[in-house]
Design a protein that fits this description.
The protein is α/β, with parallel strands linked by helices. The protein has 2 domains: about 5-110 and about 240-245, ATPase, nucleotide binding domain (Nucleotidyltransferase, domain 5, 2-Layer Sandwich), CATH 3.30.420; about 125-230, Nucleotidyltransferase, domain 5 (2-Layer Sandwich), CATH 3.30.420. Helix content is about 30%, strand content about 25%. It has helices spanning about 45-55, 90-100, 110-120, 165-170, 170-175, 180-200, 235-245; strands spanning about 5-10, 15-25, 30, 35, 65-70, 70-75, 75, 105-110, 130-135, 140-145, 150, 160, 165, 205, 225-230. Strands 1, 2, 3, 4, 5 and 8 form a 6-stranded mixed sheet that branches. A 5-stranded mixed sheet has the order 11-10-9-14-15. Helix 3 packs across helix 7. It binds beta-D-glucopyranose. The site of beta-D-glucopyranose has 17 residues, from helix 3.
């Protein structure tokens, strides 16, 4: 394996920042996975410090891909649905490159997970329209047609029968709303039905923390589109973030 086959992936989530070195030939982790709690996101600087802490445990020579829960255009944050609004307009990739002293690429977290599932996981080789949904603090989406990503789709904010999809069926909606698994799955079915009527996907891949327990809900899923669980489970964001370093020219370093 050459050094060029390796990159660091960092997945910034609502509750933790996870990172690892990734073997880009296979999508397998090439180091231990490190996780630290996400600081209460009241300060951009504190999050950058936490990123530096997380990445410091990994070898200093590799580029870093950051998966972040917002719309990202050319490395800059454009939305902040579940994070501090102070991030809007901040050039995340350039700021992180300056703080970490390495090249950094930044990408929406669901797009990252989608890239990973498409290259190495459940959607590998699937032609046509593939929709990936991450079910965590929010609902993230990644939409592909014949392997090509339409970035920043943000379908978690789609209104479904009068309420945002992510308020109905994110992982957080289940825990904070104290929904039973069955009640939550019924909400997810409504969201999936809406996605189906709008996009007619050939495959919908479900990712995110909640998919660690597929036996709780997969048997109750009803959707005209084929639905499966992501193969990379909780690692999809890390792996896709690492992959992002090969797609766009990373900032700085
Ligand atoms: C954000 C998306 C993100 C998703 C999952 C949504 O609230 O708007 O950008 O992908 O949460 O983290």
């Amino acid at each position: 394996m050459s050094e060029n086959d390796l990159a660091i992936g960092v997945d910034v989530g609502g509750s933790s920042i996870k990172c690892a070195l990734v073997d880009l030939r296979t999508g397998a982790l090439a180091s231990e996975r490190y996780g630290i709690p996400t600081p209460a996101q009241d300060s951009v600087d504190r999050l950058l410090d936490a990123l530096a802490d997380a990445v410091a445990r990994l070898p200093p020579v590799h580029a870093v891909g950051l998966a972040f829960p917002s719309v990202i255009l050319d490395g800059t944050i454009r939305t902040a649905a579940n994070i501090n609004k102070a991030w809007i307009g901040r050039p995340l990739a350039a700021m992180a490159a300056a703080r970490l002293g390495r090249p950094v690429a930044a990408i929406n977290d669901a797009d990252a997970a989608g890239l990973a599932e498409l290259r190495y996981g459940a959607a590998r080789g699937v032609p046509g329209t593939v929709l990936l949904l991450t079910l965590g603090t929010g609902i993230g989406s990644a939409l592909f047609v014949d392997g090509r990503l339409l970035p920043n789709t943000e379908l978690g904010h789609l209104e479904v029968d009068g309420r945002e999809a992510e308020q109905r069926a994110s992982g957080r909606a289940r825990t904070e709303g104290r929904l039973s698994w069955d009640a939550w799955t019924d909400e997810l079915n409504r969201v999936l039905a809406k996605m189906h009527t709008l996009l007619w996907p050939d495959l919908i891949v479900l990712c995110g923390g909640i998919t660690e327990q597929p036996e709780r809900f997969m048997g109750r899923i009803r959707c005209e589109s084929r639905v499966c669980i992501g193969a990379l489970r909780a690692e999809a964001g890390i792996v896709g973030a690492a992959l992002a370093t090969t797609l766009a020219r990373p900032a700085g370093g």
